[in-house]
């Protein structure tokens, strides 16, 4: 396995259309610049995942989602329900603005988003200056990696940086809920 990368090294990789592996609240994730189609398609190919499923975006603060989310499509109570859970391990499907590319939304009208409290994720998003793609660092159908030592060596050989750090220790990936209804889509 490659030596752990610093936040600065990972950020440099992200700015060069790279794919990184990094610890999140529960599992190790793969990330890239969500605005870079080639980087996202490369990440999806590494996972063996179809674009139709859509991807999660993670940020250091809600303001990093400006230009991504259509908060006006939600009523004030729905917005409050979402924002009251952040920062934290809560992912919400929020209506997407028209500019959000299909390689992020997949076949959906919304985008899955989370403002993280995990220090590594926060540091990466702040250094990068915006949200990152966040999907589990495993091939589609394989179990997620809760510890660095559980990461697939063949997958790691294909990423541009593997961040230092540990996951937040959650027992399962973050729950995903619909911002309009509150319905749980993944617990």
Provide a compact summary of the structure.
Helix content is 25%, strand content 20%. The chain is α/β, with parallel strands linked by helices and 187 residues long.
Counted by DSSP, the helix tally is 6
Q: Strand content of the residues, in percent?
A: 15-25%
Order of helices and strands: HEEHEHEHEHEHEEE
Shape, per Cα inertia axes = globular
Helicity, as a percent range = 10-25%
Structural class: alpha/beta
Radius of gyration: 15 Å
Q: What is the CATH homologous superfamily assignment?
A: DHBP synthase
Largest sheet: 9 strands, mixed
Task: Give your account of this protein's structure.
With 187 residues, this protein is of the alpha/beta class. It has a single domain, classed as DHBP synthase (Alpha-Beta Complex). The protein is 25% helix and 20% strand. The protein is built from six helices and nine strands. It has a nine-stranded mixed β-sheet. α1 packs across α5. The protein is globular. The mean pLDDT is 95.
